[in-house]
């Protein structure tokens, strides 16, 4: 997957901006609060997904403007395509996000999901290592939903059944025929739960070695990362049914469902120790980054098209050699990195793009600090065509 050009109008603080990225690495530089993440977010929205910042559509439109427009040319497989995404305000004829793909009106932006694909790292993803199991389950489920359309349906069915079972457990003593109803719920949960577990296990079997390799590369072989699935029980509906039977009386006491995919976790060890407890900030960041890069490569293997990588503020807390890995060794996947670290500008062999006050330029803004080590603009600075 390759983004060839992007035109942004009235999106957040980007009144009118154009970007011609490198096919490999583009480093988006600028001080805090200038619009770097906004530019990255605009690329992400081309996927048809919601903002990775959890923002509402109306917040995406430049203040006082009626709507925002994103126009992109990209290559998927061997095919050049164009996508126009409009974010309409409440007062416009078409509020919300709508899309035109190759000149054809496709209605809601979500309908183009899967056409332009990207994986994003933003600092909130650090909770993948630092936070509780829920975030790790969400990571797994979000990745699986992208890969297998049926997964979302199965997940929703499972969540609905868990909610119904929880309601029953809470009112167990006053519900006629509660025992039989509980059996029925457990039977349904063991079938659809085992299905989700099988998908998660198969996905992690591919993700874990890829993430471990990425971590070795980022840390120059100095440290290891191990990612392990912690399933609720052995695979298969029969094992899950047995597990649900085992916890039956505990569930009756607790008043909610205690076993199944909604209680699982994924263990993330750095150098043999739980990363959540013992990992340093830089190690935790490297671990999340390794997982995100692995998510993209597994998606690339399964879907036959490597997603574009969007790495927001990924360099902070990383030492020089880890930064160098990101700034110079990304070789064949299109990647965008934002940074406000002016020293990073000098070290990259990617294409530099400068953002200042909502304006985007391929040359530094007047008065901007540019390190002396930075060589003059020239074709060998960029790895285009690499
Ligand atoms: N809807 C909007 N209309 C106008 N400006 C907006 C809108 N939404 C956000 N902004 C502005 O965008 C700016 C923030 O941009 P962005 O988040 O891209 O910063 P950044 O360059 O990534 O900074 P940092 O390095 O601190 O992460 C803020 O000044 C904010 O006021």
From TrEMBL:
Residues 3-348 form the RecF/RecN/SMC N-terminal domain. It is found in: Cytoplasm. ATP binds at residues 30-37. Keywords: ATP-binding, Cytoplasm, DNA damage, DNA repair, DNA replication, DNA-binding, Nucleotide-binding, SOS response. SUPFAM superfamilies: P-loop containing nucleoside triphosphate hydrolases (SSF52540). The keyword Cytoplasm applies. InterPro entries: DNA-binding_RecF, DNA-binding_RecF_CS, P-loop_NTPase, RecF/RecN/SMC_N, RecF_2. Gene3D superfamilies: P-loop containing nucleotide triphosphate hydrolases, RecF/RecN/SMC, N-terminal domain. The keyword DNA damage applies. It comes from the Bacteria. Transmembrane segments: none annotated. The RecF protein is involved in DNA metabolism; it is required for DNA replication and normal SOS inducibility. RecF binds preferentially to single-stranded, linear DNA. It also seems to bind ATP. Belongs to the RecF family. This is DNA replication and repair protein RecF.
């Amino acid at each position: 997957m390759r983004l060839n050009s992007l035109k942004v109008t009235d999106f957040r603080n980007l009144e009118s901006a154009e970007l011609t990225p490198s096919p490999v690495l583009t480093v988006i530089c600028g001080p805090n609060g200038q619009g770097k993440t906004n530019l990255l977010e605009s690329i992400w929205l081309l996927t048809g997904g919601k903002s990775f910042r959890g923002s509402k559509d109306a917040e995406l439109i430049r203040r006082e403007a009626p709507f925002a427009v994103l126009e992109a040319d990209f290559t998927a497989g061997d095919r050049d395509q164009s996508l126009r995404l409009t974010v309409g305000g409440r007062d416009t004829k078409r509020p919300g996000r709508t899309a035109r793909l190759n000149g054809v009106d496709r209605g809601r932006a979500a309908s183009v999901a899967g056409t332009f694909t990207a994986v994003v790292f933003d600092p909130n993803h650090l909770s993948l290592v630092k936070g509780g199991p829920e975030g790790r389950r969400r990571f797994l489920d979000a990745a699986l939903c992208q890969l297998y359309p049926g997964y979302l349906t199965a997940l929703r069915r499972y969540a609905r059944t868990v909610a119904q079972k929880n309601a029953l457990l809470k009112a167990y003593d006053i519900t006629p025929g509660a025992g039989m109803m509980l059996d029925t719920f457990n039977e349904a949960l063991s079938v659809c739960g085992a299905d989700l577990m099988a998908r998660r296990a198969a996905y992690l079997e591919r993700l874990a070695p890829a993430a471990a390799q990425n971590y070795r590369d980022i840390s120059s072989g100095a440290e290891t990362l191990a990612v392990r699935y912690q399933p609720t029980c052995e695979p298969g509906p029969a094992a899950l049914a047995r597990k649900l039977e085992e916890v039956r009386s505990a569930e009756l006491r607790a008043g909610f469902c205690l076993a199944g995919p909604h209680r699982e976790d994924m263990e993330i060890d750095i150098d043999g120790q739980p990363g959540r407890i013992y990992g340093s900030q830089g190690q935790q960041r490297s671990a999340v980054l390794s997982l995100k890069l692995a998510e993209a490569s597994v998606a690339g293997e399964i879907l036959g098209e490597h997603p574009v990588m969007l790495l927001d503020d990924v360099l902070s807390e990383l030492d020089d050699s880890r930064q160098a890995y990101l700034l110079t060794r990304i070789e064949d996947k299109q990647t965008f990195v934002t940074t406000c670290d002016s020293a990073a500008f000098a070290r990259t062999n990617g294409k530099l793009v400068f953002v200042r006050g909502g304006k985007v330029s391929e040359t530094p803004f007047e008065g901007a600090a540019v390190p002396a080590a930075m060589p003059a603009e020239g074709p060998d600075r960029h790895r285009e065509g690499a």
